[in-house]
Each structure stands twice: as structure tokens, then as C-alpha cells.
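Before relying on records like the one below, remember that each one covers exactly one chain. Contacts with other chains, cofactors or solvent are not represented anywhere in the record.
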Amino acid sequence: MQGRRLVILFSLFLFCFAFLLLHLAVIQLGRGSEYAFLALERETRSVLLEEYPRGEILDRRLQPLTGSFDANRVVVFPGLIRDRQAVITSLAGILGLPVGKIAPYFDGQPCYLPFSLTPGQVKAIREHQWPGVLVLPVHLRYGPTPLAAGVVGYLGRVQSREVLDALSVNSRKSYSLSDWVGQAGLEKYYEGELKATRPKSAARLFVDAAGRPIPGLGLAVDLQSVDPGRQHLVTTLDAGIQRVVEEIMDRRIKKGAVVVMEPHTGDILALASRPVYDPRPHNLPEYLALGEKGTFTDQTTALFTPGSVFKVVVAAAALAEGIVNPGSQFNCRGSLDQPVRCWYDPGHGVISFSRAFAESCNPVFARVGLELGAGKLIEYAGRFGLDNQTITGYPVPRDGRQNWQLVAAPHNLVNSSLGQGPVLATPVQITAMMSVIVNDGVYIQPRLVRELRNDAGQVTRSFPLGPSHRAIPASTAAQVREMLQLVTTEGVGRQAYVPGYGSAGKTGSAQVDGRGKVNAWFTGYAPLQDPRYVVTVLVQEGISGGETAAPVFREIVEKILTLPPE
């Protein structure tokens, strides 16, 4: 009996010991580097040579969307400087700054000065060889023109102990209240992956327990080491196309959105909203002080009334179900028509279905919608992905206001057939809808993120192309393409035609209030032969899709089709 107890106790001891070894192994393998860095920090006074230690958010060609770059900065270790006032005075002269502007940096902990340096200034400072003063490259996260800010998001300090605890639990990384973390967009959604566990570059002074420099060890500078904890996010965005879109929007769109998609993959090449914030932290307080955080949302994933761009779905459904063919004849009586009047007061008279599509004749589509019925309209909206707000790699919360069952409610069918009433869609959804027509009737879920990479460049997680399905027959897609081409050559979207390449698409003018405000849309593709891009333009408070959005579409497409190869 005694021996059996000893065996049980010994087995229990072995189990506990094995569990302890396993736990230590997990710590060593999983967070060993992070703990080693924390230990090093206790033994040194350090200047991190990264503005914000975290992974990059990159475009499809691995270009940082924030515009990050390396630049020389003056690094100071006040405890090593012998004649502090003399150094401050001399350095101020070299930098061309008042003494009072740089003196505060010499009174506290080691740091780098936030002033740009010319090559001549770098040479002059290094020639002085002041102890405790160095010129070192610092990695700055934000360039002068960050891209895709509404999608990338912005950083802010940890706001509370509760937020701190949640971050530590969710990412299993160490945080402090002084840390900068993602507050919106991809910066927030991928905080756990982007967060660094150690800086890639640092300058360190070894100190004893009392904080005094240890003689003989001096300063240690570690440049471009590998951080095993951080990851880099590779998006599907194309920085060149994104830049073109944003430059044009800054001139032509005060409120609205633009989406550029590669139709055969569903990859989003540009995603931009206006208005938008400047994500650089020194400019953020001005935006945050407005108290309008909910205003500057990502408009590309927000719901809007699509207006006549939804007629693409109505037309495809009616053609696929055999209710009409492109040559089917209708009679438009203009302002006298029922149940809805036409925008063209005199009326189009006898008009074919394809011509009614090109001229965006509302009475024709009201009649077609009534014959199609609410059930089929809802079904085809789903086939075109207009009930799917998911974007691969971009976990934006779903907006519950999008409810296609409302189309079947009393008195809603006519307005719904015109893309009004309860019909709501996002610019990304509209772009994916148009891609169905380009793809011979196949829907592909949009994708924004391609992969995550570690600091050594190895892919740690891939995001495959989004799921796809056949939405309409290829023959129906071909019929709709001919009608879309008629819009830009003879219809209300002529200002969207791109000379030399050709383009096709659909206008939309969605009434948003009773005072004449219109959300102006154009969604289309180019070139006509082997389309490379599907582009959707939404201009809030515009005149009409043909007058306001179509010319913006044309300018964007002209520019991106002529971009030099990377």
C-alpha cells in the first residue's frame, strides 16, 4: 500500500514537472524573444529608431501605403554629454533653430530630435564627435501623402486599463499605456499581428542598477534586426492606381467614394473615400476634435441608395427569365407616364428595351420590375452579391439596414425596380455587381487582403480569392454588355466614354431627400476588349450620374490605363 502511494506521488511529481517544462518551452519558443527584449530594456537606456514599432501595411507590390521611409535624425543621450549648454548652442546653429526649441530634448531621457537633416547638417554634426550625440537613421511610418487612409486607419494611444488588458489577452503580446495601437481600419483589425515585440533598430546605453552608464560598454547601435513577433499585411491595393484615384478625388469629389476592382479576381485595386482624415498622428487631433468620428467613415463600404445602376440587375434578371429581349418594344409618355414619370418630360415614345436601358427610362423599368416580381428581384440581387457585405480580409461589421426582404413589402416593388426605396448597396457591392457582367455571369466575392508576412518575408497566412458562383448565364451577360456599351456611346453616360480604349457602364441618380440632392453614380469597365478594370464612382450631392460621376470615371480610367508598368 505504501509503495503504491509512492508510485502515485512520483507519477504526480513527474506530471507536474513535465507540465512545467512544457509551459517554459511554450514561453521560450512563443515569447522568448519578447521577454529577452524586455530584459534588455531594463538593463539599458534606449532610443528606439522606429517612430511606431509595428508591421507595415503594404500594397500588392509590397510598397508601404503609409509612405514609410528612413531618414537621419539627431539622437541624444543627455547623461553622456559633458558640456550640455555648449553642445545645445552649437547644434542649434547647425540646425538653424532657436536654442529654446532643442534644449528640452537634452533635459530628460535619451531620444531623437524630430527635425529633418540635410546632408550638410549630417556631416557637420558628425564632425564634432560629441559624446552622447549621434546621427542615425530612424524609420518613420508616415510619408507626406499616406494612401488609402480611410481603409488603413490610424493609430492612437491606449486609452484605458480595460483596453490594455483586452489587447494583451487578444494578441498575447505585451502592451503599456504609452503604446500606439490601431484605432480604426486595417490598423485596428490586424493590431495583434502588426504589433512589434521588439524594435528593428535601436541605440542603447548600458546602465547599472542605479541607472549610471557602465564604463567600457559605451553605446550599442543595432540597425535592421529581425523582429520575430511582428507581421506585415499585404493588401490587394495598387499604390499607383490608389494615388491616381485620390488625386482626382481631391480635385473633383468633396463627398463620395471610388472603387477600382480587377474583375477576373475580385481583387480591390483602389478604395478611397472623401472626406477623409490625415492619419499622421500630429495632424489627427484636429480631426478628432471635430467630434465627427462617425462622419469620416469608409464610404466605400457604407450603404447608399444606388438608383439606376441597380437596373443592371433588373435588366439581367428580366433577360435571363425571358420576360424581355433587347429588342422588346415599350412606350414612354414622359411626365404623363404611370406609375412613375420619366426624367425626360416629352417622353421617349416607342422605345426598345436596350434603348430604354441606355436612356435610363424609368417607366420601362417600373413595368419590367412589376412583371418580374419581388421574389425574382430579391433572388437576382442575391445572385449578384448585393446581399453579401463580406470583403475577404477586411472584417467591416455588417450594416443591418440592408434588408432585401423589404422589396416584397406593399408598394415597394416599383421604386425598388429603379434602385430606390428600400434598395441599399455599398460602392464595393456595386463594383462586384458590374464585375459579374464582365466575368460572363460569374460573381466573385471582393478581396482586400492577400497575405500576412513575417519580418523575414515568409508568408504566414494567405487569404485565397473569395468564393464565386454563377449568377446569370453567359449569354445574358453578353446581352447586358451590349446594352452597357450603348449607355456610353449613345445614351446618358456618353461622358464616361474613354477614347482609344472604349468603355461601358451605367449611370445612376439616386434621390436622397426632398430638396433635390442626388447621389450621382457611374459604374463601368474598360477597355471594351478584355476589360482590365471595373470602376465605381459615387459623388454625394451631385447633379446626376451622367453629368457628375461619368466624367470622373473617364478621367480615372484614362489615367490608370496609361500608368507605366511597375
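Confidence is low (pLDDT under 50) at residues 23-29, 33-41.
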